[in-house]
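MOLECULE: protein
FOLLOWS: sequence and fold
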Amino acid sequence: MLTPNSIFISYRRNDSQDITGRIYEYLETHFGPEAVFRDVYSIPLGDDYRLHLREKAQNCQVLVAVIGSDWVTVTDPDGQRRLDNPNDWVRIEVETALNRGIPVIPLLVGGACIPAENDLPSDLKPLAHRNAALARPDPDFQPDMERLTRQLERIVKLTDGARSLTRGQQLKLEYWQTKLRDLEKQLHMVQKELGAITDVTIAGKLEKRQLLLLEEIDEVDQAIQILKAGDG
């Protein structure tokens, strides 16, 4: 069993509430209801939500930042960008995790791209350099979530009972891990280009490259999991 609230889901309700509900249900089924934190489901009635959110963001093992097309630009009733408000809770959640060195996984939904560094407040700028995951509509939702859960397992999976690897298996594991890091860097570069490109033809080619990289990352990740299980 995982530590309660190991996985913190951060999102904007008016940006990605519906898809976030589906993401939460998938992760809850996979990891267990206690392991996944999402505000509306996880804050006890009567608790001060401000203190509760900050505490859980500080103590999670990984934060999943669900980013939709309006995540950067959404404004408050006065027309001010929410992300520019130091008291914006989405900003506080992500900022808290980044400042504490907690892994932050941007999860792109609704065709969103990874935010550009110049579009983020200073404390959130490191988010622009995090490798992102995708959660696309069906029929891609299921494989996207399987890919995300494998990434999360690499962070929160318990190590008790893990098998010892032979020297040969360890060398193979190091090779695949190096290859995985290289593929993730390539993916991040493609995602950054997608966020800046305006040419439809070039964007189409980049999207195809992104899908190919995701497929290759899946294959390498599966090879790593097989080795870690001592079966490679």
